[in-house]
Give the backbone structure.
Amino acid sequence: MRSHEIQLRNNDYVIAPDSLLLQAAGFAKVIVRVFSDDEKNGGLYFANSLFKAVRPLLDDWAPRYGRGDVGLWAWMGSRYFSWLKDPRFLDREWQNGKKHIIPKLDVFNPEAERVIVNLFSQLAQKPIRGILIQDDLALRHGEGFSNWGKAYFTRATGLPANERLMLRDDNESGKAWARCKCERVAQVLEKIVRACKAINPGIEIGMNVHYETPLTPERARSWYAHDLEALAASSLDYFYLMAYQRQIKSELGLSEADNRAYFAKMTAAALEKFGRRLVVKLQVRDWKTSELIPIAELQSYYNLIPAAVDRVCFAAVDPDDIPLIAKIINPTR
């Protein structure tokens, strides 16, 4: 029987959705966002020793779920926080012939890596059932060019760190740099998973995966430093495929018919690669307008998900959206 879950889009809800109502509606899991990207007032939504806690939302919500049938998960960022200011831990991006600091923790810097792993370790101590890692555990095209990143490249390859050559894919340096980035992301991911499970052996860890990954793994490697084979071989419990139907249609410029064909092909490919660890995420609200997507559209894409997919996550929703989603997973009610 298929399991259903919801991922809440905000972290400013005063009251947690009632677990009994969620259970009655057919949901097994609720995922709450525990980080903020607000540049001035951002921080985390759980008590920790590393960064500012805006409000201990997670600590307040956890007792409401306890040992019930609906599990509480925390959705947590790993690298990107717009309020990060300490240049010692931040990555450098090469753009337009220049290097500049970006508000992302540098995965090549051992101290920054310790911050990332420690952050998730502290989160794993909370009375939650799982953690969803945000899709920022990635290295985009121009990122990784800190002194630590360039030193890693030279040690691993024996090649001089020339940014212009490393950013091209038609030479040895470019291909080697792509391998280094994928390798480093996979290493940090594995450290996060193992650290969390060392704290709480029963906790489950999932990670957001971009929709390009199953069908165009070369793009995933180039754009995000996500190697499909390395991800599949990791200790992750779940792969959350961001199969956001409207985002895909807009970014790829597809007609509705072509978008549905792509969606079906993409989810089938993801199922083949990740098997029972796959969670397919459906888009419930329009990213640009925040309006609810019509139920007919949601239902049609839900019906395109292969029957063998065990888990579907509706993202990112407000508590008021729950009755609508319940009609999709229980159309006869």
